[in-house]
Amino acid sequence: MLVNYSDHTPDFRLTHCLFINGRLLDPLVPELLEGVQVLVRDGVVREVSEHAIDAPGARVVNLRGRTLMPGLIDLHVHVMASQLNLSGLVRQPNVFVTLRAIPILRGMLRRGFTTVRDAGGAGLPLKQAVESGLAQGPRLFVSGRAMSQTGGHGDMNPQSDFNGDQLHCACCVRAGAISRVVDGVDALRRAVREEFQMGADQIKIMASGGVASPTDPIGAFGYSEDEIRAVTEEARGRGTYVMAHAYTAAAIERAVRCGVRTIEHANLCDAAAAALMAAHQAFAVPTLVTYEALATEGARYGLSPESVAKIAEVKDAGLHALETLRNAGVKIGFGTDLLGESHRLQSEEFRIRAQVLSIPEIIASATTTAAEVLRQQGKLGRLQADAIADLLIVDGNPLADLACLAGQGERIAVVMKAGRVEFGDLGTL
After folding, report:
1. Residue 174 is inside which H or E element, if any?
2. What is the pTM of this model?
């Protein structure tokens, strides 16, 4: 059921409800907790108890054995990327790009992702649209436009005898431009400050070559170390951090030494790079499902031949890197990095990770670890007193069968974000 945001009756905005007769999934506990009651009021979890909660006036919701769990968190999405051909996306009219982001956001929320971190493209206006109810979607942590050097992963100009600066000019904003080309320490400092001024929560940089960009080899370095340090210094000055696209071990090590906090993808990470990440308490955010999607349907949906040829370099290495990171003690967050029509495959990341990680490790990556990356411990990722009331009611036990979280949310009976029922009906449980 789609929520009518103009309707403020208790059925649509439940400010006071008590969940009973369910099984609580706490990501810090390896088994479901029986007989736990959860009280939600004014969008916040007020109490979690193994004993009966006295809650006069609360609506009692009988879960009838269903699983109650925290909302999921995806740390690497591109909600503005409604097509795989990113260079073509830049040329799309702004209104088209923006409107096409709306069903992408709604689909994420329906799959149980109540919070996402956008890794390039989304800015403050879209975040405000969701917060105000103008658009239905997950809570957004936005990066603005990602930073790329000329010829790097964010430079979508084709290889030619001239550089098409018009794609990245600062005098106008293209909604489809998920990155901006900036070179040099001083220019980067200004660009970072501009993104913060426009509402970025964190900064994204390109620290190695990539798949979807036309002219940079996977093994190419991104910014110089001086440039990376300038960006991380600016972020620290704003009380936040830098996330870096990086594939190779050498690129990962450079980024971490220069102060980057989260490494995105990391498909070609080796044991030494993983050990360095662990020593610096850097996080990894693998995005394995996107390579499967690009390999199987990328060409059909407009991915360039140059990008298709790069997929094999990183796809098969992803699972090995995931194991390497886990063995080194690196904290691993959940990410997907899907583009265009492939957004529907978001929950397939659970299935792929299950080839290496245990189910509790996978669920933690999308809840407690993800909340730590966002610096939202105690607010997101667990159902505990004073946490934001983001919760899912699931048919089945996700700790025994990740298929409960698969598909488009078919086995997620209710999605609640900040105390509001976004999908489902508590009255029909």
Report:
1. none
2. 0.93
| Coil/strand/helix, residue 317 | coil
For 279-324, the pLDDT digits (tens) are 999 999 999 999 998 888 877 877 777 777 778 778 889 999 999 9
What is 16-70+381-428's CATH number?
A: 2.30.40.10
* Percentage of the chain lying above the pLDDT 90 cut: 78
DSSP SS3 for 230: helix
Question: Could you give the strand order of the β-sheet that contains 139-141, starting from the edge strand earlier in sequence?
Answer: 72-77, 113-118, 139-141
Domain boundary assignment for the chain: 16-70+381-428, 72-373
Q: pLDDT of 158-194, one tens digit each?
A: 665 555 554 444 445 788 888 999 999 999 999 999 9
Q: Which residue has the tokens 């971190």?
A: 117
> DSSP strand E in 258-333: where?
262-268, 283-285, 331-332
Domain covering 72-373 assigned CATH 3.20.20.140 in the classification: yes
Which DSSP string corresponds to 258-276? TT--EEEEEEE--HHHHHH
Residue 204 is inside which H or E element, if any?
strand 203-206
Whether 72-373 and 16-70+381-428 are alike in CATH topology: the answer is no
Window from 37-41, 148-152, 389-393 with minimum mean pLDDT: 148-152
What per-residue string of b and e applies to 329-360 under the rule 16 or more CB within 10 Å gives b? ebbbbbbbbbbbebbebbbbbbbbbeebbebb
| Structure token digits, residue 103 | 């069903």
